Structure formats: structure tokens, C-alpha cells
Amino acid sequence: MITVSDLRKTYRQGTRTITALDGVSLTVPRGSIHGVIGHSGAGKSTLVRCLTLLDRPTSGSVTIDGRELTAVKDSEIRTARRRIGMVFQHANLMDSRTAAQNVAHPLELVKTPTADISSTVARLLDLVGLTGFADAYPSQLSGGQKQRVGIARALASDPDVLLCDEPTSALDPTTTDDILDLIHNLTDTLGLTVLIITHEMNVVKRICDSVSLLEDGRVVEHGRLQDVAARLDGKLSRALLPLPAHSPGGLPALELLLAGDIASGPVLSDLGRRFDLSINVLAGSVENLADSRFGRLRIEVSELAPVDEMLQYLQSQGVAAKVA
């Protein structure tokens, strides 16, 4: 549904050329939720602007459902943008308009008949859980309710794609989970394809099917959530399954990554019995990601432990392992 190919964006700053996006490529299948994660300055904001054609990329392409948006004429940009619903970090509602009037605004811009606007707005407010709030002004709504109005407004043009730019970073944890659950449910209900720009790993963990890590304008890791989580040395895997920093002691330490049924099995007890040794768990992280269970462990064994043989055995059992 969404294909970004070798997207580049450069800016001139005096005599310097600033490269904001450096060959970004990613694919988001229809009906899935993809997260793009990165720290401030990674290029996330520039990517959003290029995806919505607020900025023309220097080169590369953005294709949605087979249509290359980056090839449309300037006169057709507004029509092309209607295929993408935008949800912002702050809902960006018009304070002088009620919730219903905010949702109606995109429909008014394209001169939708009044009767159709009324029925569409009522349906969308009900869909985002705001039945009874049609006449409320933004000042009368909580942060989560404002974001729900923003989501309803983004859906008013019946888009194929929902692009969410840091949609929960201004919300408290409980409200964040509620909004993420809403986005997930809307994806299933409406058959949307969703791309979420975020710097919060919790967003990726909770609802994303796949993820890209953006650094210095480049995608350095990309894949299905269960695939990137299963990479022992991957940056995303370490962020998804964090362990505290390791201070080497006098005894050998191993780091293990377990996935699927193995993560729920007696790996450590089997290892201890096989090599007749005691195992001390120094740290661990366990998560359910994309309907799969993952665990990352750091263990300590005796100085006489046959570390090489233990690593070979663990790998034969489907456990990724290395010396910590």
C-alpha cells in the first residue's frame, strides 16, 4: 500500500548542503501498522513533510496504492493529499469550532452537501468514542478527547492511509494506551494502512506490525516486529528488550535471546542440568511483541564453565547467545 523508494531531501543553508533524508526506502503492506522511530534530528519531520507533499523530495518516490504521489502536478496535490489522513502531535483543533465543526471542516472545503456532512460527522464521532460531544469546544475537552476529534477529522476524507506524527507524545500513559488502542481498532474496522512517526518505543511495542529505525536521515534497520526483535545484536531488538548496562565481573557472563515457544520453556534449567552448573540471572527483559513472546537474559556462570560448548548447545536449541 505504501512504498517509499530512495527518498532524498536536501536543503541549502548558505554555502552548505544539508541532507535531511538520505535514501529512505520502506514498504508498508495494506492493512498494517508501521512505526518509524528515531531520536530528534533523525529526519522524522522531514519524512512526514515529504510523504504529505508539503515538501517536494529532492529525489525518490512515494507511492500509495499504485499511484506515485511524488509525480503529481502541483495543481493536483490537494486531491492527492486526500488519500492521506493526518493526525498530529497536538490535535491542532480550531478553538472557535465545536468538535463536530472541526470534523466537518475538511468536508466543507470540498463542498460536500450539508446533509452528507452531518451524517458523516455523527458517524465519525461515534467511531472514535465521542458520541454526545458534538457541541463541545476544544477548551471543554481533555487531551485524549481532543486527539480523538483530530483522528475523526483525519478520517473525514475517507483516506486510504492514516499518517500519525507523534500522536501520543503529549498525552499521559493511560490516555496514550487508549489512543493507540483506538488507532489499532480503526485499522481493523476501516481497513486502513497506518504509518506512525514516533520516538516512543512503547508505541511500537503496543500496536506496530513492522518498524523502521531512522538515524541521520537513513533507515538503519527495517522489518517485521518479530524479525527485528529476534536479532541478538540489533539496535531495535535492544530497545524493544532492554537490559541495564553490563559491568564485567570475575565470572563469565552470557547474553541470550529467546523467541516464541522457546521463551516460555525451561531453557536455563535444561542448560544447568546439561553442564552440571549453577546459573545466576543478572538481568532480564520479557515482552509479548506482535503475538510472539521474546526474552533477553544476561546470565552468569562459574569460571570453569565450558562457555564455547554452552554457546553451541544454546544455538542448537534455537537460542541466540553470545559472551556478554
From TrEMBL:
Domain (ABC transporter): residue spans on this chain: 2-241
MF terms (GO), sorted A to Z: ATP binding
Organism encoding this protein: Arthrobacter flavus
UniProt KW keywords: Amino-acid transport, ATP-binding, Cell membrane, Membrane, Nucleotide-binding, Translocase, Transport
Stated name of the protein: Methionine ABC transporter ATP-binding protein
Keyword set includes Signal: no
PROSITE patterns: ABC_TRANSPORTER_1 (PS00211), ABC_TRANSPORTER_2 (PS50893)
InterPro entries: AAA+_ATPase (IPR003593), ABC_transporter-like_ATP-bd (IPR003439), ABC_transporter-like_CS (IPR017871), ACT-like_dom_sf (IPR045865), MetN_ABC (IPR041701), MetN_ABC_transporter-like (IPR050086), NIL_domain (IPR018449), P-loop_NTPase (IPR027417)
One Pfam family matching this protein: NIL
